[in-house]
Prior knowledge:
- The chain is α+β, with helices and mostly antiparallel strands.
- 36% of the residues lie in helices and 16% in strands.
- It has three domains: 1-88, 2-Layer Sandwich (Herpes Virus-1); 219-358; 364-542, Sandwich (Jelly Rolls).
- Helix 6 (188-296) runs antiparallel to helix 7.
Amino acid sequence: MASASSLLSEEQFLCSICLDVFTDPIATPCGHNYCKACITHYWDTNDVCQCPLCNKSFYKRPEIFVNTFISEMVDQFRKSKQMKTTSNAIQEAAKPDEVCCDICSENKLKAVKSCLVCLTSYCETHLEPHQRVTALTRHKLIDPVKNLEDLMCKKHDRPLELFCKTDNVCVCQFCTESDHKLHQFVSLREEYDGKKAELGKTEAEVQQMIQERQEKIQQVKQSVDLSKKDADREIADSVHVFTALVSCIERSQAELIHVIEKKQKTTEKQAVGFIKELEEEITKLKKRSSELRQLSHTEDHLHLLQNLTSINIPPPTKDWTKVKVHQSSYVGIVSTAVAQLEKTVSQEMKKLGDAELRRIQQYAVDVTLDPDTAHPNLILSEDGKQVSHGDVKKNLPNRERFSQNFSVLGKRSFSSGRFYYEIQVKGKTAWELGVARESINRKNFKGINALTPKNGYWLICMININEYKALADPYVLLTVRENLQKVGLFVDYEEGLVSFYDVEARVLIYSFTGCTFTEKLYPYFNPHGNQGGKNSVPLTISPVSYTN
């Protein structure tokens, strides 16, 4: 026989007042069923005694009795429902971080929706009336959330359905007529959509920032890899150079020792020959001395006279008074060897300098002169690659140009990285070259000794023929080969390095190290006065010739 739970739907067991399964069900005279407590409370709070469903009025309150038949069917239905709920709880029990169903008594199931009207969260089973009962389907359901009371207005106990743009807070309908009257309102949905769009934009911006930083990480890693490669190359080159130098020193030392030992052996050999001859003569002389001693002791007159003639003939000997052992001279032998070593070291240094110059030439940049900064006496070529001094001072706008010293800056500035360029100085008798920071004083020239790093200049100069200086504080006299023709200038902004090279000789002239750059740097040129035509040759920015 089928059970009550299989023949009747759950709706038939629900009280239309509390919307829950009947408790002590009773029937009104009009035939409708209610919980005993629900209908009693309903009649107690209303002036007219009537049925809540059909509105049939009763002149006097009917006597009510528990309907035993319906009560038994409700009990069976409760048991069946409890078994189903228990089964579902085993399968869908809420996890600690999930919203629980507020109706489940023991095994809390996972809530699937929260009702803003009931302020209750429901599992799939307990949500069913909200999907079926007409009065409940009008309730506003949302995804399950904890602390539903936070979605209600604390003052009016109404759902927060609007957003006050004036005060930037969520409000209920009653708030618009009291504390927030005359404020600007939008629906939560509209504000949600707007904020969500803003969040999407912000998220895109954050993602862009993340991407930029990830790219920067890759750049940093690549920089580290390149630095590692540079370091490995420098180590390899230095090991090669120093190994060659050590080998050269050891070879020179071995050759020097060999020459000295050879001379000493020659001296020893000569001495041994002299000693051997002397010893042979000594042996002969000792023999003659013995014969003379014997003859001098003889009593035989005839024997003495007969042998005296032969004995008186001296044996053949060498005149040793002028014979000397030649003592080897070592004067100059060490200095000659050191000079040869110095020559070899110089050759190795040239190879090293050549390799270094080749590496920095890869940072070559195109530099042209800025006519807006040139002193009025200077003459610039049309391509901006040459500058020389002219006797005629032109009437030009003053603005950013040098007004007292014969200088000009490059057009391009540098505020990071590395750069290199070359300047032809062949034929000139005086000049200044280097880099200067953007804020240097171009109007008040206080003399060449003021052109120092402290004042924003990193320069070298030739003030007289073959007299060179690095304009440090104090200045440094430079040793530069005669007939310097081309100067290479290399700057590493982050490293704080400014280096000058003799391009033809492939050697370093001078370096400013440990510099702190905080501004843009500009190439700086000063061809000096033409000295009556002696210094009329222009300074020329040359194209970099890459060497293999």
